[in-house]
Amino acid sequence: MGTKTLAIVFADISGSTRLYDSLGDSTARELVAQCLTLMSDQTSKYQGVVIKTIGDEIMCTFGTADEAVEAVMGMQESITEDLPRMHPYMPASLKIRVGLHFGPAILEHGDVFGDAVNVAARMTDFAKGGQIICTQETIEALTPALRASSRHLDRLQVKGKAADIDIFEVVWQPDDMTRIATDLVKSRGFKGNLRLRYNGEVLTLDHRSGVVILGRGKNVDMVVNDSMISREHARIETRRGKFFLIDQSTNGTYVLGVEGPSYIRREEMLLSGRGKITLGRELGKATEVVCFDCEPVEKPSCGTIRR
Predict the structure, then answer these.
(1) Deepest of 58, 63, 103, 231, by most Cβ within 10 A of its Cβ?
(2) What is the total count of domains within the chain?
(3) Pairing of strands 95-108, 2-14
(4) What whole-number distance in Å separates Cα of residue 225 and Cα of residue 277?
(5) Which residues of 21-55 are buried (b: 16+ CB within 10 A; e: fewer)?
(6) Helices and strands, counts by H and E, the chain
(7) What is the pLDDT of residues 212-242, one digit of tens each?
(8) CATH of the domain at 80
């Protein structure tokens, strides 16, 4: 047993359960195996070590932050460019999400333990499909060239950590880099309202509203009654003028938005435009539907939450 400073990476297939529904067990299993093979190949290419694979997830370590970032950028490129050529049934929506952290970890019997492992896993929870999310410690350990391919996303509370930590995204697609400055300017200047409508009730949030809770409990901000809904099923947070839906339930949350249908469970998504939210049941099967309308306004409303 020993302690060593390592870059720890977790990568998994975003929404892999839907693959089995849409493609069938045999085809989906083959596709998942090919994804894991491509990720393992990139790990070896950059002198990394595959610690384990569990289901659709791979965990690996690297001696330097640079090697880890180069490898995970390679993983994203392989899944986007190589996998469609290998697999004719690959859906366009298939993406991987990656989280990493650079810090001291305990090595024992071919496995890795410690706080750094937990932090890396949490970064994966924050990532969406196609994203690479990491900590400030990782960014500080990168060479300037790779550091330039990152952007600061937010300062968030992480489970198990006493203080908030800074979250960064590694941008691996060249086209995204050209949009970073524009996106940051837009996010700083945005002031908007989010209106939630359910069963005759209207709940309006603005950029100062903080957090509201949806669920079937008595003390939530919007009560939605269904046996599949948790007492505090989901929350909506306001961050820098944008509205994020965070599922914290057993059965997950379904959203029909401007980019089509989505399903989240113990993860989050940005709300934009108009759409519908159902808690615990699929959109086509749910009778209790929350409608949302997110729009920019010239001046923020005076109240924080209006019913």
Answers:
(1) 58
(2) 2
(3) antiparallel
(4) 13
(5) eebeeebbeebbebbbebbbebbeebebeebebee
(6) 9, 20
(7) 899 998 889 999 999 899 988 999 988 777 8
(8) 3.30.70.1230
